[in-house]
Specification:
The chain is mainly β and about 150 residues long. The protein contains two helices and eight strands. It starts with 6 loop residues before the first strand and ends in a 22-residue tail after the last helix.
Length: about 150
């Protein structure tokens, strides 16, 4: 069987994550992201060049979970694809813009320290029956004294 691959992207969250909802009621996350770029010098050292900024969006559960867990300044990795779309400018002109649509999104393990909660996830119905608060994406509550993070 062939290995399934997609585009990937890494960088840092440059704006506060914004969670909105589509006309169909699906969650939509928007963040401005930054990517630092470096040039290798003849002596083997690296010189930082211009940082570029781009748009990143995610939808549905990925959007809700990322909004609850990511913050401005966090280093991230994402899997997804790049798409172009038409956007109106303030003066009414239509321009083509580009955004990365993240299907999977999380912290960059090489540049982030955290602990993982590996307790098994329960369904929302099972959590409510057990009297636990449900993570609905709008407000995250942890049910143990252990720090947790995961997407």
């Amino acid at each position: 069987m062939a290995l399934h691959t997609q585009q990937s992207l890494s960088g840092f969250i440059a704006s506060d994550p914004q969670l909105t909802y589509t006309e169909r009621g699906d969650a939509r996350l928007y963040v401005k992201i930054g990517q630092e770029h470096y040039r290798k010098e003849p002596d083997g050292s690296f010189t930082q060049t211009e940082t570029t900024f781009h748009d990143l969006v995610a939808f549905k559960k990925t959007a809700e979970r990322a909004h609850a867990r990511l913050a401005k300044g966090d280093k991230f990795v994402a899997e997804g694809y790049t798409r172009e779309y038409d956007r109106p400018t303030p003066d009414g002109e239509i321009v083509t813009a580009e955004e990365f649509v993240a299907k999977k999104l999380g912290h960059d393990l090489a540049r982030t320290r955290y602990e993982v909660d590996r307790t098994r996830r329960q369904t929302a119905v099972a959590q409510e029956a057990a009297g636990q608060t449900v993570d609905n994406g709008a407000h995250r509550e942890t049910h143990s004294a252990e720090p947790a993070l995961g997407l």
